[in-house]
Design brief:
single chain, 298 residues, seven-stranded parallel sheet, two-stranded parallel sheet, 11 helices, binds NADP nicotinamide-adenine-dinucleotide phosphate, aldehyde dehydrogenase (NAD+) activity, NAD(P)-bd_dom_sf
Length: 298
């Protein structure tokens, strides 16, 4: 298939391009900058420079493609997420670019849209499992861009077209967020939010790349994508093991956790998310878990 990937130079995009090329697809990676071209080519894709906020520019880039995969994001690392305006670019990407992408894909005759989303939209569900049928916790204005993005994907899925929305677990691997967490763990600084008994659903970025390939086989709908959920206390130990230190990663004190605001509050939630629907429909399985030795170098 001919597949266009937006955000192709990012953490998710690079994994998607490489996995799609390895699966035998012809892949175009979209980047807004000339310096992004060798990054896409390094993963085996062909690069196109285009403005992701411009529907006309995008329609030109998407022409002749069967599928568009949108992996755009700009997530601030660590407590930088508390800074004023830290989420402005991420919001613009989900609110404006994702809508422009869905519209341009339809205009260009693309048949399928695969949209990255997140398990952080679910409410804290304690020790109970979360399936795709769980209502989302998105009333706060901060979640508006993600809601509008989902709506754009649903609107795309008419007139014989299909849209697959992947609610990805918390990414871990070689990415900046996890590298920051490993450094804090090594230095004995607090890094984790929530409580040790809360659940977390993780997804190694290699498995995220493979999930985009598997999503080509999925029917229209929403799918959770993550590994076996573990407690945050277990994750604290896994981080220490990977960081090469004895002491588990530390949790922020409650007083700090109380003031993290809406964006980081999602990281305090207990999210025991089931990916059974995605696994049974596509055959996708996680291959790297948080206790797989050397996961930060893969
Ligand atoms: N589910 C999750 O847990 C999750 C999801 C996403 C990200 N993250 C984490 O967040 C951290 C940052 O990763 P990321 O992928 O968000 O960051 P990123 O690498 O900064 O962004 C991804 C891509 O989006 C494009 N982009 C970013 N800002 C843009 C803008 N203002 N206008 C147009 N294009 C823009 C860039 O492409 P060009 O520069 O080539 O145009 C970039 O390569 C990582 O540690 C990652 O693991 C976690």
């Amino acid at each position: 298939m001919r597949i266009a990937v937006t955000g192709a130079t990012g953490v998710l995009g690079q994994e998607a391009v490489e996995a799609l090329v390895a699966a035998g697809h012809e892949v175009t990676g979209i980047t807004r900058r000339d310096s992004g071209v060798p990054i896409v080519e390094g993963r085996g894709g062909a690069a196109v420079v285009a403005d992701v906020f411009d529907a006309t520019d995008l329609a030109r880039a998407f022409r002749g493609h069967d599928v568009v995969i949108n992996t755009l994001a700009h997530v601030p690392v660590g407590m930088a997420g508390l800074r004023p305006l830290a989420w402005r670019e991420d919001d613009r990407l989900h609110l404006e670019a994702s809508i422009a992408i869905a519209k341009a894909a339809a205009d260009a005759g693309v048949r399928k849209l695969i949209q990255e989303s997140s398990v952080f939209l679910y409410p804290d569900n304690g020790t109970d499992w979360i399936t795709e049928d769980q209502p989302l916790s998105v009333r706060n204005q901060a979640f508006r861009p993600r809601v509008r993005e989902m709506r754009a994907a649903v609107d795309f899925a008419t007139s014989g077209r299909s849209a697959v929305v992947l609610r990805l677990g918390q990414l871990f691997g070689r990415d900046p967020q996890t590298t920051h967490a490993l450094k804090a763990t090594r230095e004995g600084d607090p890094i984790l939010l929530g409580k040790p008994e809360n659940y977390i659903t993780l997804l190694h970025h290699t498995d995220a790349g493979l999930a985009f390939v598997a999503a080509l086989r999925a029917d229209s709908g929403f799918y959770n994508v993550g590994g076996e959920p573990i407690t945050r206390g277990r994750w604290a130990k896994d981080l220490a093991m990977e960081a090469g230190v004895e002491t588990p990663a530390k949790f922020y004190p409650e007083i700090t956790q109380a003031i993290v605001g809406t964006r980081l509050e999602v990281q305090r939630r207990s999210l025991r998310v089931s990916s059974v629907r995605f696994m049974s429909e596509t055959g996708w399985r996680p291959t790297v878990g948080p206790s797989t030795k050397g996961w930060s170098r893969r």
